[in-house]
Amino acid sequence: MTRYLHTMIRVTDPDATVRFFELLGLKETRRFSSEGGRFTLIYLAAPGQEEAEVELTYNWPAEDGSFEQYDGGRNFGHLAFQVDDIYAACQRLQDAGVIINRPPRDGHMAFVRTPDGISIELLQDGRLEPAEPWASMPNVGSW
């Protein structure tokens, strides 16, 4: 038997990334730091779905202050989250300064990015009627 545990993404600013996922409704479930390994793991999940976590891995800077370099999130693909109201979710994110890369013109799907460039797909359960300003909003960059 196989059971889904989590999706791991590497992050460069754990506080900004936690704030981003909190805007989506996820909550921190646990955190672990390793002095010897020089990393911090932060787990987040949607309330009531704690068995399906997102693991944020933050590798601490080297002694000289430099960071290990990772390519942006485009090689990862995306995480997908179902939302109750895609228009409200996108408005909440946009009000917090998040760019809506692919607006929910169809009332069903949108894409945004984490502070590290990881694509996040937002999916409406079902489909809402197209509504402005989203219906006529163009894509911004790649998603």
Description:
This protein has 143 residues and is of the alpha/beta class. It folds into two domains: 6-59, Roll (2,3-Dihydroxybiphenyl 1,2-Dioxygenase, domain 1); 73-135, Roll (2,3-Dihydroxybiphenyl 1,2-Dioxygenase, domain 1). The chain is 14% helix and 33% strand. It is built from two helices and eight strands; from the N terminus they run βαββββαβββ. The protein has helices at 14-23, 86-95, and strands at residues 6-10, 27-34, 39-45, 53-59, 78-83, 100-102, 109-113, 119-124. A four-stranded mixed β-sheet has the order 1-4-3-2, covered by helices on one side. A four-stranded mixed β-sheet has the order 5-8-7-6, covered by helices on one side. A hairpin with a 7-residue loop joins strand 3 (39-45) and strand 4 (53-59). The termini are far apart.
Please outline the helices and strands.
Blueprint: E1 6-10, H1 14-23, E2 27-34, E3 39-45, E4 53-59, E5 78-83, H2 86-95, E6 100-102, E7 109-113, E8 119-124
Parallel strand pairs: 1-4, 5-8
Antiparallel strand pairs: 2-3, 3-4, 6-7, 7-8
